[in-house]
Amino acid sequence: MNKKINAMYFSATGTTKKIVSALAEKISKNIDDEAIINYIDFTLPEVRKKSVSFTEEDVVIIGVPVYAGRVPNVLLKYLNAITGNGALAVPIVVYGNRNYDDALIELKDILELNGFKAIAGGAFIGEHSFSKILAKDRPDEKDIAIVIDFADKIYKKIILKDEIQTVEVKGNKPYRKYYMPKDEKGRPVDIRKVKPKTNNNCIDCKLCVNICPMGSIDAEDVSKFNGICIKCGACIKKCPVQAKYYDDKDYLRHKQELEIDFVHRREPELFI
Ligand SMILES: Cc1cc2nc3c(=O)[nH]c(=O)nc-3n(C[C@H](O)[C@H](O)[C@H](O)COP(=O)(O)O)c2cc1C
Description:
By secondary structure, this protein is of the alpha/beta class. The chain has two domains: 4-175, Rossmann fold; 197-258, Alpha-Beta Plaits (2-Layer Sandwich). 28% of the residues lie in helices and 15% in strands. The chain is built from seven helices and nine strands. It has helices at residues 15-31, 76-80, 103-113, 141-159, 207-211, 234-238, 249-261, and strands at residues 4-9, 38-41, 58-65, 88-95, 117-118, 121-125, 197-198, 244-245, 269-271. The strands form two sheets. Strands 1, 2, 3, 4, 5, 6 and 9 form a seven-stranded mixed sheet that branches. Strands 7-8 form a two-stranded antiparallel ribbon. Helix 1 (15-31) crosses helix 4. It is globular, with a radius of gyration of 19 Å. Bound molecules: flavin mononucleotide. The site of flavin mononucleotide (FMN) has 26 residues, from helix 1 and strand 4.
């Protein structure tokens, strides 16, 4: 079969990458044990400067994390510029055990508007970007077993000789407004301006400079912040000496509230 598997993802703390890679690897293996997967990791800003396009021979597994119940708005420009030209697509969203709300339907709609045929979709759970305990260590073995099974079903759909049907996924239209955290009195709070701080543990290794998806950390002085912060968790979770932290009280309150309110384990939802 003349199908090329592509794995595309934005993944600041690596959970979306795990799901998309495992899915792409199993589909690819089913098609041809030796096939080479084309990986496009668009987490870093440099990569998002190049637009990509596909053909009818491509199958594109594309994943983004859920931010505020939606596709991260900082990715919209890049995502809207990908051209499908009839390629098959599998939209995947990964969320931190609260809810994926309208992110999956939004991603599917973007892909279809770009000329892809969405044949399956899934919402998976990953450790929450804000927390080390909410959905801790997910995706775990149980999640990956579900990914593998889903990959087999997608493969069977791809090799069908008949016209491949497009998929319907869960979500509302119009899409929900971006989810807003609340303060102790229930008033919405805007945490967009909140930026990470740097403590004395910092060894100036520059890792944070190189992994910030917004390219916002100053290369000369890593405690300086030059652009926007999307609270993706990369600099906090990947720092080898725990030098980055948030001290904003609304952010910390929101994080704690999520950890309390959403402990109940959610399971992946698949659409095919
Ligand atoms: C700004 C922001 C908003 C988020 N909003 C949600 C949300 O609405 N629902 C949810 O369950 N998780 C939410 N999360 C958590 C991420 O979707 C989740 O941790 C995901 O696994 C992160 O993916 P990554 O490891 O690929 O970066 C949010 C994370 C960030 C940074």
